[in-house]
Design goal:
Largest interface: A-B, 54 and 55 residues
Largest sheet of chain B: none
Number of helices of chain B: 9
Largest sheet of chain A: 2 strands, antiparallel
Number of domains of chain B: 1
Number of strands of chain B: 0
Number of domains of chain A: 1
Radius of gyration of chain B: 17 Å
Oligomer: heterodimer
Distance between the termini of chain B: 13 Å
Helix content of chain A: over 70%
Radius of gyration of chain A: 19 Å
Order of helices and strands of chain A: HHHHHHHHEEHHH
Helix content of chain B: over 70%
Number of helices of chain A: 11
Shape of chain A: globular
Structural class of chain A: mainly alpha
Shape of chain B: globular
Distance between the termini of chain A: 41 Å
Structural class of chain B: mainly alpha
Order of helices and strands of chain B: HHHHHHHHH
Strand content of chain B: under 5%
Number of strands of chain A: 2
């Protein structure tokens, strides 16, 4: 039951890029089409699930002081595996995603989940958490990619969906479109959260603060821990 | 002349945050006030220049001769993490005033994708050592410029009335979009 809960929280309640504001760089960079978003998401699902599992397996062996370095090395090995797999089986996608495939290793989601969840929980729960978060990330990227591709190119997964005379909004598939689109989606998510909170009679303000306090600095969990270590020394 | 063009291209035309989408986490997280933005920018300039230098040497002297190119990701991240740790220790011992100014930002930088991004980009573009380091310097200056501009805007935004749902990250992202639109005006100045 609890494993199921860990899995589903990533799909809506703690949706990584939109709710936790984690992993923004790939979210912005590769979502110029729905297909790229989906491909990037799949790579992250692979790395995140496996890294969560491995980290929770070795969590009692790693000394607390060097744990961040260990997490990074584990994640980096998995990213190299993904790179090689993509070069072998999905080369065009690998080329389209460019430097953002190796950059999965510095994606805040990986370290954030390792530090916040996998280092404290069992293997099954961590795998569920990684899979859920990864799928949530994939969903968000595909969603953002779909909006940008439909508006900016008039297609969806390469199929023409807009009527004949539609003039594509080119700006949507370029950098400014990415920022503005994501900003509007975040605002929409906030609005939904406020509405839910009001219905439950909670303080909407408190919720907003909790969401944006740490969320804005992507690597919160990992960075925070690093800063704490530095002070301790 | 070529170097001048490289600078213009890296700072304005292909700004690392606004056109290449790298380093967004600190861009949004550390842009609430100008002092913090300047500190973060300084630390990033420092680390990017040093790490570009060392990763370039690592790639050309160790990975390429041994045919270990596929280990690039793992080697680069380890080099960067070790370097950041080393720089922190060095500054603490030798230059305490600088450490006081940049110290708290250093641990955040390992997970800044701009550092790793520049290290990989210069390999893919196949720049030589001098060009790589200059490119690192220029693009981190572009990062600092974007960060400072953003901090200036956000300080003013604090006194504005905003819809509640837009406050914080959403409005910052939309400002970033507008800024990126403005930076697109530099296109054509250099390749």
């Amino acid at each position: 039951m609890s494993v199921l809960k860990e899995f589903t929280k990533g799909l809506w309640k703690e949706l990584p890029p939109f709710r936790l504001v984690l992993g923004l760089c790939p979210t912005l960079a590769v979502t110029n089409s729905a297909e790229n978003g989906l491909g990037m998401g799949a790579a992250v699902v692979f790395v995140l699930t496996l890294s969560n599992m491995i980290i929770s397996m070795v969590r009692h062996i790693i000394p607390a002081k060097v744990r961040i370095a260990c997490f990074i090395v584990i994640a980096a090995s998995l990213v190299v595996a993904v790179e090689l797999l993509m070069q072998a089986y999905a080369y065009p996608l690998y080329q389209r995603l460019g430097i953002f495939v190796p950059l999965i290793v510095v994606n805040c989601i990986i370290l954030g989940r390792a530090e916040a969840f996998a280092a404290k929980n069992g293997v099954a729960a961590s795998a569920a958490d990684g899979l859920g978060m990864g799928l949530g990330f994939t969903m968000s990227l595909t969603f953002l990619g779909s909006i940008r591709e439909i508006l900016g190119n008039g297609t969806w997964f390469g199929m023409a969906v807009m009527p004949e005379g539609y003039e594509p909004l080119r700006i949507m598939v370029q950098a400014p479109g990415a920022f503005i689109c994501l900003g509007l989606i975040l605002a929409g998510m906030n609005m939904l959260a406020f509405r839910q909170a009001r219905r439950k009679g909670e303080q909407a303000e408190a919720l907003a603060r909790q969401q944006q306090g740490c969320g804005a600095c992507g690597g919160c969990a990992a960075c925070g821990a690093g800063a704490r270590d530095a002070q301790a020394q | 002349m070529e170097i001048f063009q490289l600078f213009i291209a890296a700072v304005f035309v292909n700004n690392i945050v606004l056109a290449q989408y790298l380093g967004n986490c600190p861009y949004l997280g550390c842009s609430k006030e100008r002092g913090v933005a300047l500190g973060m920018g300084g630390a990033v300039i420092f680390v990017i220049v040093v790490s570009t230098f060392f990763t370039w040497i690592m790639q050309k002297c160790v990975l390429d001769p041994l045919g270990l190119g596929y280990l690039q990701t793992i080697v680069f991240i380890v080099v960067i993490a070790a370097l950041v740790q080393f720089v922190e220790m060095f500054l603490k011992k030798m230059l305490p005033p600088l450490y006081a100014a940049l110290g708290i930002f250093l641990p955040l930088i390992t997970t800044n994708c701009a550092v790793m991004g520049v290290a990989i980009l210069v390999q893919r573009e196949e720049y030589d050592l001098l060009t790589s380091v200059l490119y690192g310097l220029a693009s981190s200056m572009g990062f600092t410029l974007a960060l400072l501009l953003m901090a200036g805007i956000r300080e003013r935004l604090d006194t504005c009335r905003l819809p509640k749902a837009m406050a914080g990250t959403p409005i910052a992202l939309i400002m970033a979009g507008l800024m990126s639109l403005a930076f697109m005006g530099f296109k054509g100045m250099a390749n």
